[in-house]
Amino acid sequence: MRVKKSLLNVISSLSSTIVITILQFVIRTIFIRFLDIEYLGVNSLFINILQMLSLAELGVGTAITFSLYTPLFKNDTEQIKKLMNLYQKIYAIIGGAIFFIGIILSFFINQLVETSISANLQVIFILFLIKTSFTYFFAYKRALITADQKSYLLVPFTTIFVITMKLLQIFVLIRTGNYYLFLIIDPTIHFIENIVINRYIDQKYSFLKYKLKDGLSENTKKEITSNTKAMIYHKIGDYVLNGTDSILISHFIGVRVVGLYANYLLIISAITTFVRLILSSATSSFGNLIAEGDEGKKNEVFLTFNFIGFWILSWSSTCLFVLLNPFITLWLGEEFLLGTSLVTLLVLNFYVTGMRIPVAIIKTASGIYNQDKFVPVGQSILNLLFSLLLVRDFGLNGIFMGTLISSILPSIYRPIIVYKNALNRSSKIYFRNFIFYLIITVATTFILNQVIIILLIELSWVSFIFITIICLVIPNIIIILAFHKSLEFKRALNIIKTIKKGNI
Q: How far apart are CA 213 and CA 157, in angstroms?
């Protein structure tokens, strides 16, 4: 049943994401055609600034979601109601705080951003702010259905609303080219979507409407408080690592380059979304498995899961390195390219960050927050320090070199913590696998790149499709040849066979 729920989450989410991703590319193409590239830079910059304001969430959502695993497993509806009541109150305060701080910040936005576009930056920022802040008044209920491994039930709703929003935005861009109308559509549709989904969740979990008999116990409050305090460090670290790139690029290089980078980010983010959907769908399953307490099974499942993560990431990284610049050239033109050296750094960051997903999933499912709470802060300090030092000599590449260097800390420390506290084993096997996986990925990328250089004489959509097919085949052949005798490979095949037979 655990595998079945994870599979349903994966299939439904992937189907939705494919449709939405296609529409995102259509919108980006139309956006660049009808609006200046600096508008795209402003978009990315404001999203990063609002991610900073969203630090007010402080990880309380993750902490409460973790607290939901056990009562859901035991069908303790009273405890679930108590947790959701707390969640609602906290998120209402957070949403209000973000909106209030954002309004104050909006009066200084013209001093923070230098751009040649004539639009009112304050109004644009407030439109972004409305969507971000108001989400907190509704989002808390989604945590329940996620923790219950039933996210697939919401996919039809989110897909319909997102498609509606994207189509309306495309229509507005083509018919009017009005940037303000383009932005207004997003929070409006998002607001309606949240109302509909919340009503559906109320019907699905009808016990939520009944009054509480009493509040949460002191032990539960202490547990949530402790986990939330630890998550503060993780939230700050994640923001500095992932949310400051556009701000640094804007300050040191220019808003226009932020717009060019945003095109690369769109593609890499789309691939990252697919990878995270496939892997993160197992988070609740791990939480359920940990609640059962089978130590041997936890280790076996994690090693297999980590191998599957490597397979997906290795293949994705190789394809990204070979196909990213050719795709940008065909899609938008050579004037939108940022160089092979940047692609190398972006792909390396993608791979290293992605390889931490399986570790992060079991860490979250196990409720491990305090043991490595200072790691994200250390990583964020290193990231800013190296980025600021290197940007002066290496420009745009220097910013991402700083990100890559800072990734070494969590890539070493976090697996040690997880193996010690969640798996009760030595982490040596993890690092041995990690090094071997990295060697295979680099070798595969080098081989594939040489093959493409030989075969690709002239770039066109026909030749691009041809090299894409090659990219789909060669990396997987190499991985199969390298790992076909390993236990992790055999276990992964068994999972696939089980799914095909329907014995889930």
A: 33
pLDDT at residue number 324: 94
| Distance from C-alpha of 355 to C-alpha of 309, rounded to nearest angstrom | 7
- Judge whether 105 and 27 are in contact, CB under 8 Å: no
**369-419: per-residue pLDDT in tens?**
677 777 777 888 888 899 999 998 898 899 999 989 988 888 888 889 888
Structural tokens at position 314: 């290795």
Instruction: Say whether pLDDT at 257 is over 60.
Output: yes
Closest of 10, 27, 73, 302 to residue 167, by C-alpha: 27
102, 130, 189, 371 from 194: Cα distances, Å? 21, 14, 9, 35
pTM: 0.78
Q: Identify the band that residue 425 occupies on the pLDDT scale cut at 50, 70 and 90.
A: confident
Share of the chain above pLDDT 90, in %: 25
Among 196, 224, 303, 222, which residue's Cα sits nearest to residue 61? Answer: 224
**Chain centre to alpha carbon of residue 115:** 29
Q: What is the DSSP letter of 423?
A: I
Phi, psi (5° rounding) for residue 120? -80, 105
Which of 293, 290, 286 is CA-nearest to residue 5? 286
Cα 132 to Cα 49: distance, rounded to the nearest angstrom: 11
Rounded Cα distance, 481 and 234, in Å: 38
Count of Cβ atoms closer than 10 Å to residue 213 Cβ: 8
Contact call for residues 244 and 379 (beta carbons, < 8 A) = no
Instruction: Give, for 435, the enclosing helix (H) or strand (E).
Output: helix 428-455
Closest CA to 162 of 17, 29, 48, 304: 17
Angle, CA of 269, 271 and 275, to the nearest 5°? 110
Domain ranges for the chain: 1-292, 296-493
CA-only gyration radius of the chain, Å: 23
pLDDT at 499 over 70: no
CA–CA gap between residue 420 and residue 426 (Å, rounded): 7
> Tokens standing for 27?
């919108």
> Residue 86 in contact with residue 284, Cβ under 8 Å?
no
E strands along 374-453, which residues? none
The 10 Å Cβ neighbour count of residue 391 is: 21
Q: What 3 state SS string does 28-42 have?
A: HHHHHHHCCHHHHHH
Q: Is 265 exposed, middle or buried (0-12, 13-18, 19+ CB in 10 A)?
A: middle
Cβ–Cβ < 8 Å for 250, 258: yes
Per residue in 285-304, pLDDT tens? 555 556 555 666 777 788 88
DSSP output for 175-205: HT--HHHHHHHHHHHHHHHHHHHHHHHHHHT
Alpha carbon distance, N-terminus to C-terminus of the chain: 6
